[in-house]
Amino acid sequence: MMLEPRPERNSMLLNLGPSHPAMHGTVRIMVELEGERILNSEVEIGYLHRGFEKTCENRTYFNLLPYTDRLNYVSPLINNAGYALAMEKLLGIEAPERAQYIRVLMCELSRISDHLTSVAAMGMECGAFTIFLYMMKAREYIWDVIEFTTGARMTASYIRIGGVRADLHPDYRVALEKAVCETRKVLKDVHGLLDGNKIFLDRTKGIGALTPEEAVSYGWTGPCLRSTGVRYDVRKARPYLVYDRMDFDVPLGMNGDNYDRYLVRMMELDQSLRIVEQAAAALPPRAPIAAGDRRPIDPSDAIRVSRGQRAVGPVRLSPNLEGSEKNVYSDILADDRRWTLPPKEDAYTTMEGLINHFLFFMKGRGIRPPKGEVYFSVEGGNGELGFYIVSDGTDRPYRLHLRAPCFHIVSALERLIKGRYVADVIPTFGSLNMIGGELDR
Amino acid sequence: MEPKGLIGDLEKRFPGEIVESSRDGEDLVLVILPEALLRIMGSLKGPPYSYKLLLDLTCVDFRRDASIFEMVYHLYSLDAGRRVRVKVRLPAESPSLESLADLWRNANWLEREVYDMFGVVFMGHPDLKRILMYDGFEGFPLRKDYPLRRRQPKAEKGNAT
Lengths: 441, 161
Prior knowledge:
The structure holds two protein chains of two kinds.
Chain A (H helix, E strand, L loop, with lengths): L11 E5 L11 E7 L2 E8 L7 H6 L7 H5 L6 H16 L5 H29 L3 H22 L8 E2 L2 E2 L7 H23 L3 H7 L7 H6 L4 H5 L7 H4 L20 H25 L16 H10 L20 H4 L11 H6 L1 H11 L10 E8 L4 E8 L5 E7 L1 H6 L2 H5 L4 H11 L3 H5 L1
Antiparallel strand pairs in A: 1-2, 2-3, 4-5, 6-7, 7-8
Helix pairs in contact in A: 3-4, 4-5, 4-11, 4-18, 5-6, 6-11, 11-18
Chain B lengths: L2 H11 L4 E7 L2 E6 L4 H9 L7 E9 L1 H4 L1 E10 L4 E10 L4 E3 L8 H12 L2 E3 L38
Parallel strand pairs in B: 2-5, 6-7
Antiparallel strand pairs in B: 1-2, 3-4, 4-5
């Protein structure tokens, strides 16, 4: 039951959402007003609840990966990475170095697209539609790079247990340079348009402010926590992948208001671009292809030959598997066939490969981690994205719980808008960057 | 404080109330008695330990093997960069526990979620009601005896607020 009208207080109730253009997905905010002042409010969530955790507990460890794409759907690759790293901790394996650099690259590109979307939407809700268009343009370039390698813009399922699905596209650098350059230009423009803009400042400065103590008490993490001046970034505090080799700063705000949240995100965009450049420059080269390898042959020929004799050299694969040929496997996937998918060439042309393939996907087989539990977190677009997985030794997680950063952040919304005007709800809510898929799971 | 020192310290301050302790990498894992939850969590939050951030709070349905629900809390110390995992085992028949809403503000929503999904009752919670599911939802979906594809009765007209 939501807020009830209270005639004795001469207040009225106003319902915002759940289907409202400014509600970023679906959330309902009921506010009790006296004039335009908000006396009380109640936030109702759950409109996008898909039973993520229940679903995962009924899928195999390999099969549940695509569901993680749909959590924070603006930065799906970070979700993939969080899940894959949690599983790797549970299994005790590590991805090859090149795969780790690729993961860092992809995670930072995702963070850029996340922050771009967040600032874009916030700007638009304050009336700056230009910001929205500029930033969406930059995001398209970022997604071009991601699409180039993963084959998908959003639901990539690219980062897998033990590594990544495919190696980078040979020409990815061109797209990457273009994306970095265009994003820098857009950031410069946006700084120029918003930083000293009176309309924007009036709606953001000093509004929706939270003290560092309160932010910690609400379990805030990520850009929202750092906007209050608390220095906590999982990439620095508990380095994972190769973040400890990257040179980047953790921007901090001072006031914890809407404006600082905007500014922290903008500064983090710069830092992410720095990391992207460093990761691309430091990317370990691919292992040299063994001498004596023959020219790739067509899959149909390989299958025909393998019926009579032991197969053959490299196989030319269908385009949707580009980058996951057998010869790049050692660069992108951990060398342990118990946890990783056998190369397609082997599955099609050798008996062992076919058996391995079946064992991997058969019910009750596949990835079966030892009994135990694990908590692993990565720095998501909104903050600490943690996976808590309990394994009972079968091929499905006994319990999988997601620590969604949004959940903690949105739980402070009632506190942030109390005593403010109705018009302040929109920029405050926008600056929190609520993502329905992650909030409601 | 090092995990080793922390566990020794806590065992001295709360004799007999820490059932088990182990390590997960560099993080400490504690199993404590339900009645000691508020006291132990309160002291972990304050100085000198200062695990000020309640990272996460969830529940696991272990009724298949042990007829218990296990509450799992993750705390983080911003100064030391360490996590601690605190677990509390609850009887399966009437899972209830004291609320941490007075210690951490995010415990309010987190506990509502556990109530919503597992039916664990938090005593002293300011507003214990469903959060992701709707009023009138029957059963607790993340319990292991809740079937994956169970259908819910249609919500009655006028039931929506």
